[in-house]
Design brief:
6-stranded antiparallel beta sheet; 6 strands; 17% strand; single chain; rod-shaped; alpha+beta; disordered N terminus
């Protein structure tokens, strides 16, 4: 029997096919590895971005919190300052010092001063100067205080009888300017403001009458 030997041409073709297949496989592996590296790099970049975004969000949140706290703190300080100023202003005014003198002494800005007067219960009549009327009671009488930014007047009052609820003693026209420091032309306006203010504060319907030396409130 004759010896059989491989066909050299066939061997070469097989080797070539194998070599090509191996190169293609290696090329695909390189491509896959390249894609993996790219994906990994993107993931790292995204992680860095996410961390930076998280830090930015945390920073912004802390900044907003600090700003909000600062704003609330400033508002609290301003409120406390106004409360203290109102308390001081009331005490000084009730001791007879005109409000405008206090304003100038404490260098209070106009808008703040107007707000303080409103908080103290001042009201404007017929677009005139802000006014406040208050009274105290000691036994069967006391004092009525007429407070305007330029003056503070004090009149004695006492309970009346029958339909007369109370009677306040006031200067007549002849003595008005001497006792109050205000012009006689202001007398009727001031007494009307006092009469109306106190009448409106009563729990029952009340009217007032202005007489020569008295203001009476009747129910």
């Amino acid at each position: 029997m004759a010896n059989e030997t491989p066909d050299s041409n066939s061997y070469d073709r097989s080797a070539g096919v194998f070599q090509q297949a191996l190169e293609e496989a290696l090329a695909r592996l390189d491509a896959v590895n390249a894609e993996l590296r790219l994906a990994h790099e993107k993931a790292i970049d995204q992680e860095i971005i996410n961390k930076e975004e998280l830090r930015r969000i945390q920073y912004d949140a802390e900044k907003l919190a600090r700003e909000h706290f600062h704003a609330e703190y400033q508002q609290l300080k301003e409120t406390m300052r106004e409360d203290l100023t109102v308390e001081i202003l009331e005490k000084i005014i009730f001791h007879g010092v005109p409000a405008f003198i206090v304003k100038e002494a404490l260098d209070i800005p106009d808008d703040m001063f107007s707000n303080l007067l409103r908080r103290m219960g001042f009201k404007s009549y017929d677009q005139g100067k802000p006014v406040r009327v208050a009274w105290d009671q000691q036994g069967r009488g006391g004092h009525i205080y007429f407070i305007r930014e330029d003056v503070m007047l004090k009149f004695y009052w006492e309970f009346g009888g029958g339909e007369v609820l109370a009677v306040a003693t006031v200067p007549d026209e002849a003595n008005w300017e001497k006792e109050t420091g205000l012009a006689v032309s202001e007398r009727l306006t001031v007494l009307k403001q006092i009469g109306e203010w106190i009448a409106n504060e009563q729990s029952k319907p009340c009217i007032y009458r202005i007489k020569d030396q008295f203001v009476e409130w009747e129910i």
